[in-house]
């Protein structure tokens, strides 16, 4: 692992902006009492909040806000990496790593998953790119025994639903969902745009509220049933 101090680089030039950010985080961890007490788990709420703020900035198409929120999210990455880099000295883990290790792992993964860019594969369509990506990912995750392995259950329920429906399709589950979509389209009841979809989702949530139902719980309970069906099909 590597580390740097605030100041000039090895060639006498000022360090680049990313390295200054790393050094700034290191100084904060060293000198800020609050930051010294934080661990990975305690940072999670801030990570979630910063991620949502970035989403808001992107959806607002505000480049100034996007730039700022990207920086805030980068700070979270640097914070987690700095905590991990001190794991051995803190006596909490033998598996310490720093931001350079994080970056190296990322580069290695992206090179593997883009053989049409860095190796001899050819991809003329987005579909072919996705095939190569999935093939590379499958080769990396050979220890996984289920298509559900690696799915983050903490995702918002709608995002999780979309993810699980895709996983279900891989194992031939969810035919009734496809039939329902087809039938709705046949009678003109299916939305034809994201705007119409938003209207429909809002109507469904309003219906849940009017009946005293919990829309979030209802979807998550249905997703648990879908997961059971997926695992049954795999078995």
TrEMBL record:
Pfam families assigned: MazG
Gene3D superfamilies the UniProt entry points to: MazG-like
Alphabetized InterPro entries for the sequence: MazG-like_dom, NTP-PPase_MazG-like_N, NTP_PyrPHydrolase_MazG
CDD domains referenced in this protein's UniProt entry, alphabetically: NTP-PPase_MazG_Nterm
Boundaries of every NTP pyrophosphohydrolase MazG-like domain copy: 40-118
GO biological process: dATP catabolic process; dGTP catabolic process; dTTP catabolic process; dUTP catabolic process; TTP catabolic process; UTP catabolic process
An example Gene Ontology molecular-function term: nucleoside triphosphate diphosphatase activity
Protein's recorded name: NTP pyrophosphohydrolase MazG-like domain-containing protein
Organism for this UniProt entry: Microbacterium album
């Amino acid at each position: 692992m590597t580390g740097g101090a605030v100041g000039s680089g090895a060639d006498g030039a000022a360090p680049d902006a990313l390295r200054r950010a790393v050094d700034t985080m290191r100084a904060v961890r060293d000198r800020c009492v609050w930051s010294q007490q934080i661990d990975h788990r305690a940072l999670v709420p801030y990570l979630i909040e910063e991620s949502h703020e970035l989403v808001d900035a992107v959806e607002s198409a505000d480049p100034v806000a996007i730039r700022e929120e990207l920086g805030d999210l980068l700070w979270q990455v640097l914070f987690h990496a700095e905590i991990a880099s001190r794991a051995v000295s803190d006596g909490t883990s033998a598996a310490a790593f720093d931001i350079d290790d994080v970056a190296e792992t990322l580069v290695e993964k992206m090179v593997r998953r883009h053989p049409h860019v860095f190796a001899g594969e050819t991809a003329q369509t987005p579909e072919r790119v996705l095939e190569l990506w999935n093939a590379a990912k499958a080769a990396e995750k050979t220890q996984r025994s289920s298509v559900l392995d690696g799915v983050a259950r903490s995702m918002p329920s709608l995002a999780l639903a979309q993810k699980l429906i895709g996983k279900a399709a891989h194992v031939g589950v969810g035919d009734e969902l496809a039939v329902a979509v087809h039938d709705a389209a046949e009678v003109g009841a299916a939305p034809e745009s994201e705007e119409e979809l938003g209207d429909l989702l809002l109507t469904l949530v309003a219906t849940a509220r009017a009946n005293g139902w919990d829309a979030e719980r209802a979807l998550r309970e249905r997703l648990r049933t879908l997961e059971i069906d997926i695992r049954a099909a795999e078995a």
